[in-house]
Amino acid sequence: MERTPAISSFLARRPLATLYRAPGRINIIGEHTDYNEGFVLPGASHLHLLFAVEPSMSQDLRVQAGRYEETASIDLDDPPIRMDHWSRYVAAVVQTARAHQLPLSGLEIIFDGNLPAGAGMSSSSALTCGLLYILNHQLGWQLPLEKLISLAQESEHRTGVRGGIMDQFAIFSARRQEAILLDCRSLEAQFVPISKEGPFWYLVDSGVQHNLVHSPYNQRREACERMVALARTRNSNVTALRDLDMDALHLLQEVADQEDFRMARHVVTENQRVGQMVEALTRCDWERAGQLLLQSHQSLRDDYQVSCVELDFLVDSLITLPGVLGARLMGAGFGGSVLCLADPDREEEITNRIQHMFADRFDQSCNVYRVALDDGIQIVDLQ
Ligand code: GLA
Description:
With about 375 residues, the chain is of the alpha+beta class. It is about 40% helix and about 20% strand.
């Protein structure tokens, strides 16, 4: 695991520090289904944040962000949230801990790493989950993983985005070389091995930064809630879009707002695609897996309307390249990365060609990463 210069210098000055690793989240399929109590298929990325931590005598969390070369001191008694600053996640975690009467005391923390921010890999959840894991470990909270997952989600809600549970669940519980088939209603998880043979998964980061607080993420949730309310006028057993199949949805088409109807159609079809993807991966049917990625992208673009020109360009261009089986926008959308399934023998050619095509069109570069599904949060052995 590569330590950045900032982490190395912190560790050199504090030999008793503990090192933690929190990965980013990738998602094979199942987008915007988590807060509709549906299914998702995420895992943890090899790209991660590292945190070096030492207890301190002060009454604050002193958190240094290696990548921004900035330090924030968060008062443990009165932590205001500065909405436009990365430290909002630290303050939100402290507020959550206080709301649950969890004991707090001073810590000196530095975080840094190779996980890009705003690339659709949930760096904000990696930060939030990482901090909660650290507090649990350093301050003797002894909370089980499920509790930490829900505290992480609650903390992120304090920053203004009503996100689902997928990112936090994956970041805490993922396993190397496996994806998690998660039922977001029961939180039952089944691990799905991802074969090392066959095509590889790549991420192409468009570099378009999204800030979900200012994006229509919450509006998408509200559209889903309106459709649930409408469905309940016909069937009171419906409590989330997860409960609708295509037949039940079509019965609402006449009476629903047409935009809301399309949003719900994305959720219903995407839930089906998660199951179909697990089948395809289990059979090593890569053609089918690629088709499902494309169908997911089309649905996110046309029905859910969370794509943007850069992401559409990447998907449309990637699928013209030899060796590419499929691609789709990953994460919330509105920017960030495209996930792509492609022949590893063509990696160099695909990387060069997509970077050229993107630069020709937008006059800026895009990064390509080969994804390795990794373990969830852990303590790093310093020996
Ligand atoms: C963000 C949210 C998740 C999920 C995805 C879309 O990453 O944090 O909960 O809703 O968007 O699938």
